[in-house]
């Protein structure tokens, strides 16, 4: 019954606010992971992107303006990770705040000794537990230009990670997945890459992945969708875990 209502709602939204064909084609041209999908997956992605635009509020700030094509592009990137999971995986938050360029969030942090610090880190994106996703539009447009990079997918991976608490590289796994295998695989890859870095070897992924387990998950997720063949080649076991989690086989 609920499913029937939901399907009816989906059909209504898609019928009322369809993504126009030229905008959809433009989004496909600029989003490699979407371009690589088969026709029926592309059709599902288009429906998800339509619903994403209906449910989430895209909020450009600091004079940035996003036209319809920009919004469709952003939604297309955002829905890649949940293509086989469903939009429910993005429940619990509403806003996507978009800065024109990299931004410096004003934030105070209290360290272990109780000292308050103002942080001044320049960010391309940020995701809060129950709050908004924050993106730099300049970085959104960079997706795929540096191989394996996609800031939207990165922040959405953090959102999925935080569905079961803090961002720690451990999103809610599906019933048939083995939690121990997930942890063992990701930490073995992490240790291996740290070892390589210690020896000054070039890393097959963005070294930012080694900041912490949450960043590791977000960075390998970007690569899983943007440059799946490279991830499969360099970290095949991580690739396999991500295949199971995202229920997709991009390579
Ligand atoms: Zn991150």
What does this structure look like?
The protein is α/β, with parallel strands linked by helices and 251 residues long. It has eleven helices and six strands. The longest helix has 20 residues. The site of zinc ion (ZN) has 4 residues, from helix 7 and helix 9.
- Would you tell me the structural class of the helices and strands? alpha/beta
Strand order of the largest sheet: 1-2-6-5
**What's the alpha carbon Rg, rounded to whole Å?**
18 Å
The proportion of residues in beta strands is: 5-15%
Largest sheet: 4 strands, mixed
How many helices does DSSP assign?
A: 11
The string of secondary-structure elements, in order, is HHHHEHEEEEEHHHHHH
Q: Portion of residues in helices?
A: 40-55%
Bound small molecules, deduplicated: zinc ion
Query: Which overall shape is indicated by the principal axes computed on the Cα atoms?
Result: globular
Low-confidence stretches: none
Determine the mean pLDDT: 91
N-to-C span: 37 Å
Q: Work out the number of β strands.
A: 6
């Amino acid at each position: 019954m609920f499913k029937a209502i939901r399907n009816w709602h989906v059909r209504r939204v898609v019928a009322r606010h369809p993504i126009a064909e030229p905008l959809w084609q433009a989004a496909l041209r600029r989003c490699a992971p979407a371009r690589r999908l088969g026709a029926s997956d592309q059709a599902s992605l288009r429906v998800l992107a339509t619903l994403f635009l209906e449910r989430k509020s895209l909020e450009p700030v600091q004079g940035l303006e996003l036209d319809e094509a920009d919004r469709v592009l952003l939604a297309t990137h955002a829905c890649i990770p949940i293509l086989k999971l469903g939009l429910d995986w993005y429940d619990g938050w509403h806003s996507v705040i978009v800065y024109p360029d990299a931004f410096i969030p004003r934030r105070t942090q209290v360290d272990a000794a109780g000292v308050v610090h103002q942080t001044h880190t320049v960010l391309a994106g940020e995701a809060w537990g129950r709050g908004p996703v924050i993106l730099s539009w300049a970085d959104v447009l960079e997706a795929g230009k540096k191989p394996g990079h996609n800031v939207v997918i990165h922040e959405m991976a953090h959102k999925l990670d935080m569905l079961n608490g803090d961002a720690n590289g451990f999103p809610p796994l599906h019933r048939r997945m083995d939690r121990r295998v997930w942890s063992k695989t990701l930490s073995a890859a992490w240790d291996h890459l740290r070892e390589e870095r210690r020896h000054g070897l070039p890393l097959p992924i963005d070294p930012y992945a080694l900041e912490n387990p949450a960043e590791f998950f977000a960075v390998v997720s970007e690569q899983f969708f943007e440059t799946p063949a490279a991830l499969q080649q360099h970290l095949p076991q991580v690739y396999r875990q991500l295949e199971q989690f995202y229920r997709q086989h991009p390579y």
